[in-house]
Structures are given as structure tokens and as C-alpha cells.
Write a structure and sequence with these properties.
By secondary structure, the protein is α/β, with parallel strands linked by helices. It has 31 helices and 31 strands. Helix 18 (517-532) links the parallel strand 24 and strand 25. The longest helix has 29 residues, at 882-910.
Length: 912
């Protein structure tokens, strides 16, 4: 073994070895009960970020753990076509080349996207491999490959035939930048301060009387078709049935009573109704049979035709035509003010809806779209979680899920882009012309909301009504999340009845972030129950976000992004994986820093050095013996190891990755490396002795076991070391995962050895504080609180004396420490106290030691005063870089702890 561990030399070699041996591949006839995970498919536009690293590390831990347990494991990998995101990337590329998608046309543009995918779309797959992901790459899927496309068409047709998909003109969320519809959960709401405009609407029969309405969108009043008041509001209910003159137009609109729309306590108590530009108004328009006047075009500019339909005053109409929202608002407000219609304006907090992709402000837009009638699908999905048929972990997400599902709205699934699953619906040109529902434009046909679709799995050859052969396909594509909703069963071959589907569905666990609980998880549950009759997975583990060390969201603009590819190169993949696992506490965001990753790189080095020590001590006989026949220190480490094994397995069963990682970390670093390897050295000194042979056996057996225990977390270094020590089998990743054997666990031995180790640590602490050379023999006294403690420590007299370098060691219940002794107390569970003393006579010069401590106390006082001044200044805390603030706080705490400790020691020396 090399002196230092070099991850770069190891990782690629072992990953290639695992792939070539087929260890990642699942067989439908393989032994063991099935355990399956489907990967949340990353976008083909994506590059590995820290969220991906966390998500896939946790999945890989589960899959490697279950594989080693003998389960028939399948981890299905794949990527998502990411409709809007991918189209945006390719369109930018075309612009750089001096062309556009419109110039290319649909077919050539889609061909360009496929070419881009072939060249760049697989980058994230290679990055997942770099992370160590043990996916079944032979089953790599893509949401637009032929098999999944077949599944998408099948689901669409069945839902349509069952009355669960319909087409109609509705108000939808529209992105003027992406030029497509968005579902409700694709709109992100940001808090903003807007303005509330109070506008007077004169009564038609008495212009001296007016209703005042309050709105944040004065530019939409041109599309008003009514004003609503509460029917029980005594201020306004007498106006119900009357009409008002709509400012800036030549129209009169009715006053209606509507208790659902109007909140008497908000604004003025009178509400304008604009059915084509507000979701609540759309519903009110249906209730009162009000017309819908669409003012804006797809780019959110005022449409000249819409202005004509709205009968805007001639002078204003020309000024407003083709103006974007912001400019139109300023012009309308100016006109209202001039006309005396504007009563007042005030600041108003509001939630601004933005496109989740490009962050453009979303507009409500009246448009023919395709929808899924969601309530019939939501009911079974609610029951599945209520009955714990599906578990959400942590359980706190259950209420969020149920609340959202109970209030779920129909899902708009059509998108006005080209890249994606084109909707399998066709329209007859002949019938469409006759009915006026299919209008021929200069470049293409335009479909009205009343156009009658012919939905089919494959392109029909003719119209079933008139026999005409000229059919036009619906130009829209499906929401990306539609195909993703089928992922757990479409990736296994559905709608065909494949062996994979029979063996691995339902899958076992889904690991995902909370941000796509509603986008993806809820929809997978609905679709799985509908088309498979079974839930798509048993457990859903929902992890938190990865943030920077100060808890801030990582972003390029803030300059606080930690790139997983960079830190893997710098510290090794295992260090990153272990960091993420150790910090993955349920419901708590991960505050990540490079220092934490560096710390776990040191853990990898600690493991490597332990392996080198063991390798150097392999020479000599080994002895097979019952546990009871081994030296007590060997029995102690095996007892501790099997406790650790039990705790790690329990934690993984409960998805407590943090507890599992920290348990194995503590055991390896603090018990195995810090203590057991030192305890083993005296036994190994005489290579030919039986004790050396027994300890050598325990050393190899325990180390090989802990490597297997650690493997799911740190796969590369464990494979490298495992191959370098005695083992059975081809690879650690297919070796059995350790299971707890309670016959190894001995509570009495653990207490006896741990008590002795605490005494050794106390003696060493005194040696360190007094600056006594490690080779100098000490005279030690140990006062115990009871005969039982005395017997336990006397049993390990030789061990304590050896490891503490104690020339004399006296243990008893009636011990009195020498007058010139430094003492320290050890508090044991239950409150029992053991006092340890080291005679300092002849070992130190008291005067020099007091002078040294006094000098150091002054230095510490100066440093603490400087730090306190800095930390008390708000400017310093607010403006200093986060890493500097963190280091200043840490130094201050360290100085305080050292100052307190030295003060106690100085008081003791002065009392001598």
C-alpha cells in the first residue's frame, strides 16, 4: 500500500471493475427478495450540483446496503427530456449561430435537439458515475425513448377515453418569455410590494354616483365585464342589477352580487370582474354568464384586436396598442387620473407569480388547453398515504401532502413548445373548416377551443366522421411532468407485461427532495394507482436542501456555490459522500462547508493508516478460537463492533443516514483506531506467541468487518483496502453486509475496558497539561468509589500501567494522593467518581510552571479581549466574510476553554 491514499488513482479503476463484472446489473431471476429504486431523472441540460450529489449518495447507500444484504437490487437510472429547459438551451445555441427555431421549422428543430442531446445530454450520467452511483446502466432510460413514449401515448389515450383528460378554453398560467402554459405548481410566488389603485366607476343612470373598486392591475380594467359587491353589504347591495360606465371605454357593465368573490373587509368592498385575466374572476364570470375579453397577446402586450373588442376610447386605443404590461399600466393610470377616475393609490404587499424556469412574471391567459381531471385520481392517492400504504419520511411531510391533495386543481398538461411528447390528437381539416373550429392561417392551422379532437395511439389514416384523409396533429406537447409521473412503471416496460415489471414493481423506496413532492411524487402516486392498481413505492424519503455554511441558499450570484466535481477532485469522492450522509438529518437543511469535507478526507486517511498498520502486522501465525478464549481487549473490540453493527443497520432501516454515518465514524476513529490498535500493539510484539496469533486474527476479522460496514458510505477506499487484506470473495460490494451477532456483546467487558481507558486518558491529560515527556514514567494513584470499581481497574492494572507509562500504579478505595499530586476526576454514568492523581514531585519546577501559566493567561486575555470587541460590533458581524466570522468565534471559544483550564491549574499550584 502507498504511504498516502490517492483517490484519483483508485476511484476510476474500481468503478470500471464493478461495471465490467456486472455487479450493478439486476436479474429478474436473481436470488433474494427484490429491492428497487428509480432515480429521480436529472434533466439532460443539467450538470451535477450538490443537490444531485446528496440525493444520489443517499440512494447509493441504500442500494449498496441492500445488495450486500442479499436482496435482488435494481436501481433504475435515467434522464428527463426537460421540455422547456432543453428547448431554451438549444434556442440560445441557434441564436448564436444566427438562426431561430421558427426559421428551421418544427421537424428540423427537433432534429437539432436530438443532436444536442447526443453530444451534451449525457454529461450528467458520467458525473453520476464519478460519484460512485451503482445504477444498472444496462437499463438506462430517457423520458422520450421509444418505450416511454409508448407508455405516454397509452396513458393519454386511456385517460381521455375514461373522461379524465379534456380540452377546453380556460384561464391558465402563461409565461410570456417561454411562450407556454404552466401548471399551478410551476409558478413560484415571490413577496413584493405593489400598488393598490382605487378607481371610480360611475353609475350609468347617475354619473354623480360611483362605485370605487381597488385593484393592483389597472391595465386590465379595459377587459372588465362586471363589478361585484357582496349581496349582504348594505353599502352596495342596492346597486345590484344596475350598470356602471367602464372608465376609458364606450361600454356599460353590470353590477352583480357575489359572496364568493367579494370580501367586504378588503379594499373598498367592490371588486372589478375581468374573466379573461384573473382566475377568481374567471369563475365569477361563469357564475354570472359574463363575457370574456382577452386584452393581451402571447408576449403579454396589449393586442389591438382585444382593444377593439373592449371598445377602448379611440384616442387611447392607438397609444396602448402592442404596449407591454408595464408601459400599458402607466398609460392607463395617466388616463384615469386625467379623467378624474383615480381616487387614490397606496402601497400594497402582494405575491408575484413567476415562471419557475426563467423567472418572468406569469400572466393569466385565456387559451384552449388540455387538462387532466384530477379529483378522481387524487382520492386513491390520498387514501394510500392516510392508510400508511405509502410512508412519507420524515412524517411531517404527510400533512403537507394531504393538504395539497385535498385542494388539488385540474392539471393543465399542454405546453406550447416543440420539444416533448406531442399530444396524440388529430383534427380533420374538412370537418374543422365546416364548423369553423380549425382556421387556416398564413403558416399553420389555428385550433379553437371547440375543435373536435381525434385521440389515438397512432396517427389515424382518415376522419371517422367524414372519411377525409387530411388530418392535422395538435401542435402542443405534454408537460414534462406527465411522462415523469409514469417513471416507476414505464421504466420497467409498461404497458407491456415484462418480467421486470412483475419482479420489481412496486418499487421499494423513493429518495427525493421536498421541492418536487407535488410536481412529481404526488403525480407518480396517482398514476401508479390508476394504471398498476398498486402504489409505485412503499417509502418516500424526503431530504432537505444543501446550503452554505451560514445556511444561505447556494447561488452563483452570491459566489457561495460548492461544486461537487471540484471537491471530489480535491478531497476524494468518499469524503464528499460521507460528509453528505453524516449531515443528512431529517427535516434539517445541510449547512455545508469545505472544512467538513476536508475533515472526512482526514477520516479516510485515518482508515488508510490503520490498514497500513494492520498490513505490517499480518506476518505470523493466526489462531482460530472462540470469542471467550481471546484476550479481553479483543473481546472488547468485538463487542463494540457488534453494537456498532446493530446501530448502523437500525439507523439505515429508519433512513437515519446521519446517525448511521456518525456511529460508524465514532467507532472507527475513536474506538478502533485511537484505542484498539494501541491496545493490540503489546500483544503483537511477540509475533510467535499465541496471544499475538489470537490478536492478529481479531485484528483482521474486525477490520475486514468494519470495511464492509463502511462500504455503502465510502465505496472506493473500502474496496481498495479490502482487496489488500485477507478476505473472501471477488469484491467488497458483493460481500455480505455485517449483521449483529449478540453472542459477541459483553456488557461487563465493555464497562471494564472503557473504565480503564478513561483512567488512561485522564493520566495522559495530566501529563499533557504539565508538559511531562511521554517517555517519563509516572507515579499514579487512583481512588475508586467502591470495591467493584477497584476490582475492575485492578483487573486491567498492567494495561493501564503500560499505556499510561506508569512506573507505579496504586488503585484502591482508601487512596490518598501525594501532597504534590496533580489530580483530575472522572464522572461515570450513575454519578460515581474516580479520582486520578499523578505525583509531580521531581517532575516539574513549580515556580517555572506558575510563571509559564501566568504568561499564557495574559496572552489569552489579550486575544479574548480583541475577539470580544470585534464580535460586539454589528458592522463586523454583518460585513466580515462568513469563514472569518466562524474562525473568530471558534478562536474565542477555544481561548476561553484554555483560560479556564489554566486558571484552575494555577490555583492548584499556588495552593501547594
Amino acid at each position: 500500500m502507498e504511504k498516502a491514499y490517492n483517490p484519483k488513482q483508485v476511484e476510476r479503476r474500481w468503478y470500471q471493475f464493478w461495471v465490467e463484472r456486472g455487479y450493478f446489473h439486476a436479474s429478474v431471476t436473481g436470488p433474494g427478495s427484490p429491492y428497487a429504486i428509480v432515480i429521480p431523472p436529472p434533466n439532460i441540460t443539467g450538470s451535477l450540483h450538490m443537490g444531485h450529489a446528496l440525493n444520489n449518495t443517499l440512494q447509493d447507500i441504500l442500494i449498496r446496503w441492500r445488495r450486500m444484504q442479499g436482496r435482488n437490487t435494481l436501481w433504475v437510472p435515467g434522464t428527463d427530456h426537460a421540455g422547456i429547459a432543453t428547448q431554451n438551451v438549444v434556442e440560445k445555441q441557434l441564436l448564436a449561430e444566427g438562426t431561430t427555431r421558427d426559421k428551421l421549422g418544427r421537424d428540423r428543430f427537433i432534429q437539432k435537439v436530438w443532436e444536442w442531446k447526443a453530444q451534451s445530454g449525457g454529461a450528467i450520467i458520467e458525473q453520476l458515475k464519478r460519484l460512485g452511483s451503482s445504477c444498472d446502466w444496462d437499463r438506462l432510460r430517457f423520458t422520450m425513448d421509444e418505450g416511454l413514449s409508448k407508455a405516454v401515448r397509452e396513458v393519454f389515450v386511456r385517460l381521455y377515453e375514461g373522461g379524465l383528460i379534456y380540452r377546453g378554453e380556460r384561464l391558465i398560467n402563461w409565461c410570456p418569455r417561454c411562450l407556454t402554459a404552466l401548471s399551478d405548481i410551476e409558478v413560484e410566488h415571490e413577496d413584493a410590494t405593489g400598488r393598490l389603485y382605487h378607481i371610480r366607476y360611475p353609475l350609468a343612470d347617475d354619473p354623480t354616483t360611483h362605485l370605487t373598486v381597488a385593484t393592483t392591475r389597472p391595465e386590465t380594467l379595459l377587459g372588465d365585464t362586471g363589478v361585484a359587491v357582496h349581496p349582504e353589504d348594505p353599502r352596495y347591495n342596492r346597486f345590484i342589477g344596475k350598470r356602471v360606465k367602464l372608465p376609458l371605454t364606450r361600454r356599460l357593465i353590470p353590477v352583480v352580487g357575489d359572496s364568493l368573490l367579494v370580501d367586504r373587509e378588503f379594499g373598498t368592498g367592490a371588486v372589478k370582474i375581468t374573466p379573461a385575466h384573473d382566475f377568481n374572476d374567471f369563475e365569477a364570470g361563469l357564475r354570472h354568464n359574463l363575457p370574456r375579453l382577452a386584452l393581451f397577446d402571447q408576449q403579454a402586450r396589449l393586442d389591438p384586436a382585444g382593444l377593439r373588442d373592449a371598445q377602448v376610447e379611440n384616442a387611447l386605443e392607438g397609444r396602448l396598442a402592442s404596449k407591454p404590461v408595464r408601459e400599458a399600466r402607466a398609460l392607463v393610470v395617466e388616463a384615469l387620473e386625467k379623467g378624474g377616475f383615480l381616487a387614490r393609490v397606496e402601497d400594497h404587499p402582494m405575491a408575484l407569480g413567476k415562471c419557475y424556469r426563467c423567472k418572468t412574471v406569469v400572466e393569466p391567459y385565456l387559451s384552449p388547453q388540455w387538462f387532466v381531471k384530477i379529483q378522481p385520481l387524487a382520492g386513491p392517492a390520498i387514501k394510500a398515504v392516510e392508510s400508511a400504504q405509502i410512508r412519507l419520511i420524515p412524517a411531517q411531510w404527510t400533512n403537507n401532502y394531504l393538504a395539497w391533495m385535498r385542494d388539488i386543481k385540474d392539471w393543465c398538461i399542454s405546453r406550447q413548445i416543440w420539444w416533448g411528447h406531442q399530444i396524440p390528437a388529430w383534427y380533420c381539416v374538412n370537418c374543422g373548416r365546416d364548423t369553423g373550429t380549425l382556421l387556416e392561417g398564413p403558416k399553420s392551422f389555428t385550433l379553437t377551443a371547440e375543435a373536435k379532437p381525434l385521440v389515438a395511439r397512432h396517427a389515424p389514416s382518415h376522419c371517422p366522421d367524414c372519411g377525409h384523409h387530411q388530418l392535422v396533429r395538435d401542435p402542443d406537447v405534454l408537460d414534462t411532468w406527465f411522462s415523469s409521473a409514469l417513471w416507476p412503471f414505464s421504466t420497467l416496460g409498461w404497458p407491456d407485461e415484462t418480467p421486470e415489471l412483475k419482479t420489481f414493481y412496486p418499487t421499494s423506496t423513493l429518495v427525493t427532495g421536498f421541492d418536487i413532492l407535488f410536481f412529481w411524487v404526488a403525480r407518480m402516486i396517482m398514476m401508479g394507482l390508476k394504471f398498476m392498481g398498486q402504489e409505485p413505492f412503499r417509502d418516500v424519503y424526503i431530504h432537505a436542501l444543501v446550503r452554505d455554511a451560514e445556511g444561505q441558499k447556494m447561488s452563483k450570484s452570491k459566489g457561495n456555490v460548492i461544486d461537487p466535481l471540484e471537491v471530489m477532485d480535491k478531497y476524494g469522492t468518499d469524503a464528499l459522500r460521507f460528509t453528505l450522509a453524516a449531515m443528512a438529518s431529517p427535516g434539517r437543511d445541510i449547512k455545508l462547508s469545505e472544512e467538513r469535507i476536508e475533515g472526512y478526507r482526514n477520516f479516510a486517511n485515518k482508515l488508510w493508516n490503520a490498514a497500513r498498520f494492520i498490513r505490517m502486522n499480518l506476518e505470523g501465525p493466526r489462531a482460530e478460537a472462540l470469542v471467550a478464549d481471546r484476550p479481553i481487549t479483543d473481546r472488547w473490540i468485538m463487542s463494540r463492533l457488534h453494537r456498532c453493527i446493530g446501530e448502523v443497520n437500525r439507523s439505515l432501516e429508519e433512513y437515519r443516514f446521519d446517525e448511521a454515518a456518525n456511529t460508524v465514524y465514532h467507532f472507527i476513529w475513536h474506538e478502533y483506531c485511537d484505542w484498539y490498535l494501541e491496545l493490540a500493539k503489546p500483544a503483537l510484539a511477540d509475533k510467535a506467541s499465541r496471544q499475538a496469533a489470537l490478536t492478529r486474527t481479531t485484528l483482521i476479522e474486525s477490520f475486514e468487518t468494519l470495511l464492509r460496514l463502511l462500504h455503502p458510505f465510502m465505496p472506493f477506499i473500502t474496496e481498495e483496502i479490502w482487496q489488500a487484506i485477507p478476505h473472501a470473495g471477488e469484491s467488497i460490494m458483493v460481500a455480505p453486509y455485517p449483521s449483529q451477532d449478540k453472542t459477541f456483546i459483553d456488557e461487563a467487558i465493555e464497562q471494564e475496558i472503557e473504565g480503564s481507558l478513561k483512567v488512561i486518558a485522564a493520566i495522559r491529560e495530566i501529563r499533557g497539561v504539565q508538559a511531562i515527556a511521554p517517555s517519563k514514567e509516572l507515579s499514579v494513584t487512583v481512588a475508586t468509589p467502591s470495591p467493584a470499581f477497584e476490582r475492575s481497574l485492578r483487573n486491567q492494572h498492567a494495561l493501564i500501567a503500560s499505556l499510561a507509562t506508569a512506573g507505579t500504579l496504586v488503585i484502591g478505595t482508601d487512596i490518598k494522593h501525594p501532597a504534590f499530586a496533580a489530580t483530575t476526576s472522572i464522572v461515570f454514568p450513575g454519578g460515581s467518581i474516580v479520582e486520578v492523581g499523578v505525583d509531580l514531585a521531581g517532575l516539574i519546577d513549580v515556580g517555572k510552571e506558575k510563571a509559564r501559566i501566568e504568561k499564557r493567561l495574559k496572552e489569552l486575555a489579550v486575544q479574548m479581549e480583541q475577539d470580544e470587541k470585534k464580535l460586539s460590533k454589528p458592522d463586523f458581524v454583518a460585513k466580515v466574510p462568513p469563514d472569518v466570522l466562524k474562525k473568530t468565534k471558534a478562536r474565542h471559544e477555544e481561548c476561553k476553554a484554555e483560560h479556564e483550564k489554566l486558571s484552575v491549574e494555577l490555583r492548584r499550584l499556588r495552593a501547594m
